[in-house]
Amino acid sequence: MAIRSFIIPFLLLFLSSLNPILSLYEDQVGLMDWHQQYIGKVKQAVFHTQKTGRKRVIVYTEENVIASLDLRHGEIFWRHVLGPNDVIDGIDIALGKYVITLSSGGSILRAWNLPDGQMVWESSLQGPKHSKPLLLVPANLKVQKDNVVIIFSNGRLFAVSCIDGQVLWKKDFEAESLEVHQVIQPPGSDLVYVVGFAASSQFEMYQINARNGELLKHESAAFAGGFLGEVSLVSSDTVVALDSTGSIVLTISFQNGKINFQQTPISTLVEDSLGPAVIKPSSVTGIFAIKTTASTIFIRVIGEGKLEVVEKTHHGTAISDVLSISEGQQAFALIQHAGSEIHLTVKLAHDWDGNLLKESIKMDQQRGLVDKVFINNYIRTDRSYGFRALIVMEDHSLLLLQQGEIVWSREDGLASIIDVTTSELPVERDGVSVAKVEHSLFEWLKGHMLKLKGTLMLASPEDIAAIQSMRLKSSEKSKMTRDHNGFRKFLIVLTRAGKLFALHTGDGRIVWSYLLQSLEKSEVCQHPIALKLYQWQVPHHHALDENPSVLVVGKCGSSSDAPGILSFVDAYTGKELSSLSLVHSVAEVIPLPYTDSTEQRLHLLIDADKHAHLYPKTPEAISIFEREFSNIYWYSVEDDNGIMKGHALKSKCTGEVADEFCFDTRELWSIVFPSESEKIIATVARKLNEVVHTQAKVIADQDVMYKYISRNLLFVATVAPKGSGEIGSVTPEESWLVAYLIDTVTGRILHRVTHHGSQGPVHAVFSENWVVYHYFNLRANRYEMSVIEIYDQSRADNKDVLKLVLGKHNLTSPISLYSQPEVITKSQSYFFTHSLKAIAVTSTAKGVTSKQLLLGTIGDQVLALDKRFLDPRRSVNPTQAEKEEGIIPLTDSLPIIPQSYVTHAHRVEGLRGIVTVPAKLESTTLVFAHGVDLFFTQLAPSRTYDSLTDDFSYALLLITIVALVAAIFVTWILSERKELQEKWR
Length: 985
Description:
With 985 residues, this protein is mainly β.
């Protein structure tokens, strides 16, 4: 009895160390996840560098982000991500304390507090017609009630108070054909000039009183040659434009309300001008730029509309807006490329030949050309002017230059990821030195002693910080070699700028980046577009001397018949191995489940003419392909026409040029959805690399159901044409949603269900034999999620579990898709609280671990939901056998458990996609969510049943074992003494 009472506390202490972790502690943050914040490609920047307060720059970006950045380090002070329907049109700073933004096509004007980004006021600006939005904030705006910002939008001119957002006056411009290009207020003047074109050949000028909106003068003048493109303002009473042919520069002055035209042929300015030219807007007084197919020409307006060429540069030149540095003096910046360097020059607006600043900065070639430049000045210690330049590069990165150095840089191209794939890291081959082992052993002992102090609540704050630091170091998560659990990988991402990044899953750092030269703008390809990213070569253990590589697919132009571009990149080094400019287009890419002797995966590229092209173009690839010729099928979806088609290969292409890697195709089947009642809005198929552990599913009554496992199943969702708009735009009687399960080899519709009174958008995920989709129920005015599970009835005789164990079944009998499948479906619908942006499902190495749905909510967070909640067999009162199986009692709504948010307290702003990757450890899946931000974590849907956690206290276990052994020895001695004493009695 004494032995038992002595040992029980040690047993309890030992068992407590084995309990699974149910929550995330403060010192565990960053161990298994990372979060990175970005803003996207900057479109406009405004500096705020007053003597008081922090120096910052306010920007808005192509990702619809307004942000305040620290000028010292480039960190984000604050930011706001506006919705996709609230596109930012302009930004400026007013009164030195408000950030003014114009958005939604000029319909919404907002003021944000400059220090903390809180919204101060918002005004709605409505008008009779849509027009180009223009924002004008006077440069000399003071803190006075009558000082205003001027906005032209929706066919009206508005004057809005900077203090409270009140509309002081508005003026309608009702001419239907009027297209306003500039709103001008000369410095210190109470006059506002509105200039634009009417009927493409009439120049219109309106003079308006800025205090009350009264129209003082209206003049118009016709030009027979018409106008083309943008208008550039060169002074407060002069603009320049091009005629409709793009070959004549028009200098238009409206001084004192009189309109005068001055014509200058471009050929007299540039001798080798080829093709039409376009005007590049510039705010430099007296200067404008013309871009031709060969170069960019900077031209000064002198005298009475006379033009003078001041400089001719190549296309890599960027010019900034004008900057007032003192009264009557304005400066601007010019950036030009010269090999691996860029030349930054700051000039006075009235003196092009003189330079205020000239610097050369070495630049990484993988950033491409400078796209935009913004400048700001400061006072040096010697009272002279210094300049800093904020530049936006071709790869969407943002850099600050000062005193000939790069002060900081931001890789904001990662805010526009369009595709993601993964790659394994190299295998560790080098040995480990004895000194390193001894050092590691010392660190191991030190770490576990600190952990023991933490467990016994004896650790000081310094000890807790040391524990967290040592965990980050000891986790080895940032090593550049593979780990046995498969947690360390490369996330290879392709951005909209045509740049590849390799991110380490351990800490999210950029290992390498490469701006694809094959996707750079050139004379041959003016508008290259990156499309998709695929795994090209994945060497296994017998070919580890080969590096894995990825395939980047792009095209040269936005049209469907634009020629394709292929680029092959080494996944370890980021070097482009080769590239191909194709003569055919790329409408679809089909990765085939076949590889050659070098582990290169075969890909089939379908062009716009429905020809199939095989890559790689090698004899071995064609021999493998011809063996599987009759087993290759694919489908195509024409969303606009409501048509689905199935295709197969027919024969080699017949044409003028013989190509043994080109094949004609034939149409096998087609499904035409009636255009008056159905419109395709979503199609989802299974992942090609998904692993299914078992086809059999044993249910509560020891019966067996067989999953209908087919890689050729496709989920299709259609809605009524009226219901394809925004939610609530139709009544429940006018909208319905139809879900289909279609076999893409035969074109058979295996299942069809109609949800009356429902509409999209639809987000769906397909895994194993089930599909889950999310939509809006108009009748209930709530979101819903439905699940469909499909089972194979042709194997209904194999329901004996004993036969499955003994192998007496016909599961190996061949199955033909052309035979009529005997299937049954089970489905159920549940209410769900959130709107979704994305949906995915966890995937593991062997498919044994239970599934979880990953839901990207409207709040830009990722929620994990157990698939058991979406089991169609749920009932209100499950039987005892069903409870033992794990069936959850039926409720009408799906639960949202706060602890189930994978992203914790983080938000992945602008969430666009969720990618799951299986680790080698069966219990764990890797989750990557991307949008404007990036988030990565490890997830164990069924907990880590096959490993101990990283923070498992081995020291406590060792101490417990030693204590138990010591206790046993002590109690044995005491017992022996007691027995001896009893014998002597």
